[in-house]
Amino acid sequence: MRRADPRLTSTDDREIAVGTDGSETAAQAVATAAEIARRYGARVTLLSAFSEPGAAWTAPRTRRSGASAPPPACARLREVLARAREDLTAQGIDCGVLVDEGDPADVLVRLAEECDADLLVIGNRGMQRRVLGSVPNTVSHRAPCSVMVVKTT
Questions:
Q1: Strands 95-101 and 119-123, how do they pair?
Q2: What pTM does this model have?
Q3: Is 35 within 8 Å of 62 (Cβ atoms)?
Q4: Is residue 68 part of a domain?
Q5: How big is the chain by its Cα radius of gyration, in Å?
Q6: For residue range 54-68, what is the model confidence (pLDDT) as tens digits?
Q7: CA angle 106, 97, 153 (to 5 degrees)
Q8: For residues 114 and 49, is the Cβ–Cβ distance under 8 A?
């Protein structure tokens, strides 16, 4: 007799990752991830990338930590992620944050694997610092889980 996959029967283990950089496209992806999380009782992990060598990342529950003040772009990203996390928490959604330095597509794929995501939600426009469409294209081909590309344009 085959056993049921516990990921399909237990709401405690459902993980939705969502890529965000603070753009309107990413905000729509976060909203979609939140809707799915509410429907299925899943946890949401906000994923993001930065590309400022030597930058210290100081947001809670992130992979990177440091004592120095972050550069302006990192400070803006930290604010975006904190605000998104607060909004999701206010909606009753368990929410975490993972951030790493590097190419946005590579970082999203790597962090989705780290958080053992069942689903990775991204917008259909590329994250900042990339050519339009290249992040969604790369992520959809390399992600370790199902990918939902939210049409925002």
A1: unpaired
A2: 0.78
A3: no
A4: yes
A5: 15
A6: 555 444 444 444 445
A7: 60
A8: no
